[in-house]
Amino acid sequence: MKKLSAKILSLFVLGLLSVSSTIALAQNTFGDPTSTQGVGISGTGTLQGGKLIDVIKSFINWMLGILALIALCILLRGGFQMVTAAGDDGKYKKGFKILQQAGIGLVFIGVSWLVVSVIFRLLGVIGV
After folding, report:
1. Phi-psi region of 46 (alpha: psi -120 to 50; beta: other; left: phi over 0)
2. Taking the CB of residue 113, how many other CB atoms lie within 10 A of it?
3. Average pLDDT of the residues of the chain
4. Which of 58, 82, 84, 101 is deepest in the core (most CB within 10 A)?
5. Could you give the angle at which helices 52-83 and 89-126 cross, rounded to 10 degrees?
6. Which domain holds residue 95?
7. What mean pLDDT is predicted for residues 20-49?
8. What is the pLDDT, as a whole number, of residue 106?
């Protein structure tokens, strides 16, 4: 059972990474159809961050989002294990422990996002 759930989780993460990289590589084609801004030039456009700090912030936020999705999947797994325990106290307690740990993980991810946002906002005010 553990091997199957590990394979399913790894396939989910792999699929999520491929979808997110496809979305990240998509270009903005909306707006003025006569505009030639960024046509034929890689990495140009109005939505591109020009500073290294913007790239780092985007990467950290992206990783925190991925971690939140993984924690949500673990929450669902723990809840499923609790629901399907069928009166077995051991399975129910194990599912509840998984639920608690995933909840704590989500709280840490939220606090991490808040700290990162405050730090980068301060760096933006300073002008680094």
Report:
1. alpha
2. 16
3. 75
4. 82
5. 170
6. 49-128
7. 50
8. 94
